[in-house]
Amino acid sequence: MRLALWTALRGLRARAGVLAITVLAVALATATALTVPLVTRQIERGAQDAAQVFDLLIAAPGSATQALTSSLFYLDTPTGNISEKLYEELRDSPGTRRAVPIGLGDNHLGFPIVGTNAAFFDQRLRPKDPPYFRLAQGQIFSGEHQIVAGARAARESNLKLGSTFKGAHGLEERETEEERGSAQHNEAYTVVGILAPTGGPVDRALLTPIETIWEVHGQDTPATRQVTAVLYAADQLAGVYVTAQRVNAGREAMAVFPGQVFAGARDVLAQGQAAYAGLSLLVLGIAALTVWLGVHSATVERQKTVALLRALGAGRSTVFGLVLGETLITVTLGVGLGLALAVLLSGVGGTLLGDRLGFTLAPPQLTWTLAVRALALIPLGLLAALPPAIGAVRVSPLRHL
Amino acid sequence: MSAALRTENLSVQYGPEVTLRYPDLNLEAGVALAITGPSGTGKTTLLHLLAGLLRPASGAVWSGDLNLNAASETAREVFRRRNVGYVFQDFHLMPGLSALENVELGLRVAGADQPRQRAREALERLDLGHRVQNRPGQLSTGERQRVAVARAVAHRPGLLLVDEPTAHLDRNRAGAALELLLDAAAELGATLIVVTHDPLVADALPARLELGQEMAVVGV
Ligand SMILES: Nc1ncnc2c1ncn2[C@@H]1O[C@H](COP(=O)(O)OP(=O)(O)OP(=O)(O)O)[C@@H](O)[C@H]1O
Ligand SMILES: [Mg+2]
């Protein structure tokens, strides 16, 4: 086998031009087929996970999408507020696993200050999973005006443990110094914890006890206290529907199933992805054809090499391995390069897209199901090389000398 | 290891038209034989038979105790890579490999240790130490021939088969080539069989097999 490899590598060196073209074709096809699915999955992972840690979003009546983009993604103005009383009812009703209050209204350098409570950090993707939000540094807030910063918010506004800042009114940053001065609150916040990146919207958030929000906005008596939304999780699936019905029956709030909103968005995406998958298949097909051409472009040369090797006394398994090995090396190089390229491109693409959306996407994750699409080129290449490999074993060495 | 070489009733059939019948050979280990005769009388074919590259229509080739025609394909492969050094009529060097790699290839097929080192030594012994990195296309005919000889002798075979070693050479170079082969065979103690049209070569070797028109029966 070492002889086959030695000869294969030198054969490929002698045909460096064809090798380069084939490797490039396979690499580009692989990258084309995988980059977009990789980026899509990055986004889906971050956005969907963020919505999967609870069952229902309960917010003031209005557009379901707007409620989600505001209270979950902090990208829009809320549909309104609901009373603290409703939040407490939800929290205390039987069958509730968790009710997490969300209070919006202020920002720091454009990063939303999100009022909530300790239950926020207990949210999980599945009941048995570890908590979804993990602290990278410090601890959870334990008093008013303490801040647990999302990974991106901390990094970009240069917040460390112990850093202090003053919050500003409104969900977005003010344009001018003057505006900023007048909009600023007087109480300083102190950072006590920094979250690990999630790839979701909480990366941008500055979390503080909801009591801080009430205090800052002068909601001193229980009757005046409000929350923007409640992230609700039930013990059992049936409980989710019961609660949704109960909330929607009242006038004060609406219950939004985040999954339904996402499913709508995904239907649109899926159509685009199907078209893209078809295109990828075509490109991979062309790559397979290039491999096949590469195999056959070298027929005469390879027959001479094989004949000489056999005449010198090389075994039949050696020449068989030589012919398959040349193709295997070519396709593997191409697919390997393509996978690296796909991860690189989707990493860059994900970063750019994450900047637009305002949260840091997790690095691209190459799963087997995705990689298999490109790895399939390897057996296809071997299949193309099989007839000449068998020929090499069966033909008399004198035939091509 | 050189061995006695013997043939019995050898004949080869190329299609319905051509039948080649050979007189029996009986060579002691280490002798040098010239095979001469007009073109088309089957000289190259006989070398193929002796190398275990071709199975005859009838008869047998014996190398010592090994009957090459009865042997399995694998046994013939082993025989070729261990015992045979073959200098082909047009050399059959690989154009994509350097002179050094061409010789190294032969040694690797033979399963030799330190193939690169030994290839370099074989080329140096044939005064090609300065051309080891050149490809065959960059070498003169005489140099290519020496690379082919280096590849044929580097793994120290017991049987050296050479097809028309002086066909492409002027008289001076032909003499040098002949000397090269005789020296190499003597050093290895190998049996040397040279197919040639060249009286200079034929006369220099102690034994001769003349293949005649009468033995090549054309159009039975
Ligand atoms: N593969 C083949 N198929 C058919 N006929 C062949 C084949 N190889 C050789 N022959 C025929 O067998 C005869 C002997 O060929 P061979 O090459 O052994 O002759 P040669 O003595 O070496 O000739 P030369 O001196 O020209 O090299 C020729 O008539 C040739 O045409
Ligand atoms: Mg001949």
UniProtKB/TrEMBL annotation, chain A:
Annotated Gene Ontology cellular component terms: plasma membrane
Alphabetically ordered keywords of this record: Cell membrane, Membrane, Transmembrane, Transmembrane helix
Domain ABC3 transporter permease C-terminal intervals: 279-397
Residues that span the membrane, as ranges: 274-295, 331-354, 366-390
KW NAD (keyword) present: no
Main localization, broad class: membrane
Membrane topology recorded in Swiss-Prot or TrEMBL: Multi-pass membrane protein
Compartments where found: Cell membrane
Pfam families per the UniProt record, alphabetical: FtsX (PF02687)
UniProt keyword Lyase present: no
Domain of life where this protein originates: Bacteria
PANTHER family referenced in this protein's UniProt entry, alphabetically: ABC TRANSPORTER PERMEASE, ABC TRANSPORTER, MEMBRANE PROTEIN
UniProt name for this protein: ABC-type antimicrobial peptide transport system, permease component
TrEMBL record, chain B:
InterPro entries with a match to the protein in the record: AAA+_ATPase, ABC_transporter-like_ATP-bd, ABC_transpr_LolD-like, P-loop_NTPase
GO molecular function, one term: ATP binding
GO cellular component, one term: plasma membrane
Keyword line: ATP-binding, Nucleotide-binding
Domain ABC transporter: 5-220
Protein name: ABC transporter, ATP-binding protein
Organism lineage: Bacteria, Thermotogati, Deinococcota, Deinococci, Deinococcales
